[in-house]
Design goal:
mainly alpha, 4 helices
């Protein structure tokens, strides 16, 4: 949860400041950012897409 927060907010604050505030290492943040998505993350993205399609097909209900 900390690394995605850092990725979303690095345009606002420096990575060093975010890592220090969240008590994580900068190297860990860079490693997380460079890592390929896991099988779970890929499956979750596919499921999210299907949910959105279903929502649109049901006239957003």
């Amino acid at each position: 949860m900390k690394y995605p927060f850092i990725a979303r907010h690095r345009a606002v604050w420096s990575i060093s400041e975010l890592c220090r505030t969240l008590s994580v290492s900068r190297s860990g943040s860079y490693e997380w950012h460079a890592r390929s998505p896991s099988a779970w993350a890929l499956a979750n993205e596919r499921l999210t897409g299907r949910i959105r399609e279903s929502f649109q097909a049901s006239d957003r209900t």
